[in-house]
Amino acid sequence: MDRPTVTTARAAEIVGIGYEGFRSYLKRGLGGRVGMLPGFHKPGGDTFDDPAPRAKWKRFNVSDLCLFRVAKLLMDAGFSFEAANSVVSRHEHWAAFTYDSAPVHRMLAIWPPYGDHIVYEPDQLELLKKALEAAPEIVTLINLGAAHEHVLVALKETVMTVDAEQ
């Protein structure tokens, strides 16, 4: 399977964050270690694992971009960086974006202030409807499939731009 990647500057554009802001989020640990192997250390060696491993990355793939886009949407909805990052730094969310061959319109339901959340699969939307009818508190909904679609469209535009330049 072809796994396109983009530069940091293009990743910031796709996610919808300014370049400096995007770099700042990466330095703060956006995405944590999700999708990465645990650190390996020689016996008796330093066991330090960088809390912001993506801060030094120069290329980002679809899964990274989808997670970063969801984090941006959560922050736009009023959640703190820490709450948004705790949601996108979960292996199951990374795995869904990694293994889906096309956008799947899962719904992320998240409650303020700390980011307690549930992901509803497409066949569980009736459960989501019932939960929303029964819950008097505020719930933010994010369509994870729409975030995935946004990233794929932007990547396609990137490829078309590169092809036109060549």
Helix and strand topology:
Blueprint lengths: L5 E2 H8 L3 H9 L31 E2 L1 H15 L4 H8 L2 H9 L7 E5 L4 E5 L4 H10 L5 E4 H22 L1
Antiparallel strand pairs: 1-2, 3-4, 3-5
What's the short version?
With about 170 residues, this protein is mainly α. It has helices at about 10-15, 20-25, 60-75, 80-90, 90-100, 125-135, 145-165; strands spanning about 5, 60, 105-110, 115-120, 140-145. It has a single domain (about 5-35, about 50-165), classed as Multidrug-efflux Transporter Regulator, Chain: A, Domain 2, CATH 1.10.1660.
Uncertain parts: none
User: How many distinct folded domains?
Assistant: 1
Kindly state the number of beta strands: 5
Radius of gyration: 17 Å
Mind telling me the CATH class?
A: Mainly Alpha
Order of neighbouring strands in the sheet with most strands = 4-3-5
Please describe the biggest sheet, giving its number of strands, its sense, and whether it closes into a barrel.
3 strands, antiparallel
Mean pLDDT: 84
Structural class: mainly alpha
Number of helical elements: 7
CATH architecture: Orthogonal Bundle
Overall shape: it is: globular
Proportion in β-strands: 5-15%
Helix content: 40-55%
Distance between the termini: 23 Å
